[in-house]
C-alpha cells in the first residue's frame, strides 16, 4: 500500500508541476486517471484497516491473534498513515482538477483565444444574433459627466416648501 501511495504521490506532484509550468500540457485524462487511482487505493486501505482491526481481536481455538496484538497495532498504524497520505493525495488531485477547470474557463472567456479559434461550428460568428458591428451605439450625451442620467419620472418629487 505504501508503495502505491508513493507512486501516486509522485504522479500527482509531477502533474502539479506540469500544470504550474504550462497548464495546456496536462490532459483531463491524466487527471481522471490520477483520481481513479487515488479512489481505488482509498478503498483498499479502508478494507485493510477494517480487516486488521478485526483480526487484532480474534480469539479462537485455532487462531489466537490476541497475543500478537502489538504486531497488529503496528500494521494498523501503518495503514492509518497510508490513509492520511491518500487523503492528502485526494486533495492534491482535486486542486489539480480545479486548476485545469479554471484554465479551461479562462481560455473559453479569453477574447484572444476565441478570435484565434474562429467562429463556432455552425455559426457565422454571431452571438445571440448580434455581432459587435450590429450593437447600437450609446450616445455620448447620455453618460457625460455632470449630467443626470435618471429619467424625470424616477426622481423624487420635492415637497412644497411654503404655505
Please sum up the structure shown.
The protein has 163 residues and is mainly α. It has helices spanning 2-21, 28-56, 69-109, 111-117. It is rod-shaped, with a radius of gyration of 31 Å.
Descriptive key words:
mainly alpha; 163 residues; rod-shaped; 60% helix; 0% strand
How would you portray this structure in words?
It is a single chain. The mean pLDDT is 76. With 163 residues, this protein is an all-alpha fold. The longest helix has 41 residues, at 69-109. The protein is built from four helices and no strands. It has helices spanning 2-21, 28-56, 69-109, 111-117. The protein is rod-shaped. It has a domain at 1-20 and 27-86. Helix 1 runs antiparallel to helix 2 (28-56), helix 1 (2-21) runs parallel beside helix 3 (69-109) and helix 2 packs antiparallel against helix 3.
Which helices and strands occur, and which strands form pairs?
Layout lengths: L1 H20 L6 H29 L12 H41 L1 H7 L46
Helix pairs in contact: 1-2, 1-3, 2-3
Total number of strands: 0
Distance between the termini: 91 Å
Largest sheet geometry: none
Query: Would you tell me the structural class of the helices and strands?
Result: mainly alpha
CA radius of gyration is: 31 Å
As residue ranges, the low-confidence spans are none
Order of helical and strand elements: HHHH
Shape: rod-shaped
The helix count comes to 4
Average pLDDT, to the nearest integer?
76
Task: Report the helical percentage.
Answer: 55-70%
**Beta content:** under 5%
Amino acid at each position: 500500500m505504501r508503495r502505491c501511495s508513493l507512486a501516486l504521490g509522485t504522479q500527482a506532484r509531477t502533474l502539479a508541476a506540469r500544470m504550474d509550468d504550462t497548464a495546456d500540457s496536462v490532459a483531463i485524462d491524466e487527471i481522471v486517471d490520477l483520481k481513479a487511482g487515488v479512489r481505488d487505493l482509498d478503498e483498499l486501505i479502508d478494507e485493510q484497516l477494517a480487516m486488521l482491526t478485526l483480526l487484532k481481536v480474534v480469539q479462537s481455538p485455532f487462531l489466537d491473534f490476541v497475543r500478537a496484538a502489538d504486531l497488529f497495532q503496528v500494521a494498523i498504524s501503518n495503514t492509518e498513515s497510508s490513509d492520511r497520505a491518500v487523503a492528502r493525495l485526494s486533495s492534491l488531485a482535486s486542486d489539480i482538477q480545479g486548476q485545469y477547470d479554471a484554465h479551461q474557463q479562462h481560455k473559453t472567456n479569453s477574447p484572444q483565444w476565441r478570435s484565434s479559434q474562429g467562429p463556432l461550428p455552425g455559426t457565422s460568428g454571431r452571438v445571440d444574433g448580434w455581432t459587435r458591428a450590429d450593437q447600437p451605439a450609446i450616445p455620448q450625451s447620455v453618460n457625460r459627466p455632470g449630467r443626470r442620467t435618471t429619467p424625470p419620472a424616477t426622481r423624487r418629487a420635492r415637497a412644497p416648501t411654503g404655505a
